[in-house]
Design goal:
The chain has two domains: 40 residues; 95 residues, no CATH class. It contains one helix and twelve strands, in the order H-E-E-E-E-E-E-E-E-E-E-E-E. The protein is rod-shaped, with a radius of gyration of 35 Å. It starts with a helix and ends with a strand. By secondary structure, the chain is an alpha+beta fold.
Length: 186
Amino acid sequence: MTEHPDLIAQINKLRKDLVLSKCIGAFFIALGVAGGTWISFHKPATLEASRLVLRDDSGKVLATLGREKFGDTCFALHTKSDAGDASLCVDDGGDSALFLGANGGTSRTVLSNEMEGHAGGGGPSSMLYIGEENGKNYVNLSLDEGGSLRFGHGVDQSIVVSANKTMPAINLYGSSGKIIWSVPKN
């Protein structure tokens, strides 16, 4: 048999490379098994806080989650320019509300569901309010035992259509806040 020193050197190099490749492969397999085992037994961290505040790079509050000063738990979003905001709130009594504001808070929409009715009376009720912050130029739809639709320019100069069980009515209020026209007649 004729000896080929170059061929024998190449075979020996391939054997070394094969052993090295097997060792590297075994290392990565062991690393994958160890990592998979660690992940399967590691419990995700829990973030606990009484209030979360999200700020932009300049420190402006963009979102909050927590109990507000008035007692409700709310998730609130704010624009950088204070042009608009939105809040979703719930309280311990089972009431909930969605507040949407625009034009720096001068225009707002409120959708609420209250367990004790608006102004604390009666049973459950729902309410949709669309209007200006100062109560001028509004529409208010209340759904409860004395359901009503109100629209106008504040307490005075408004129209109220009510559908209570005893006697539905339509009332027009003048600038003094008193009824100026009613069906049925009062």
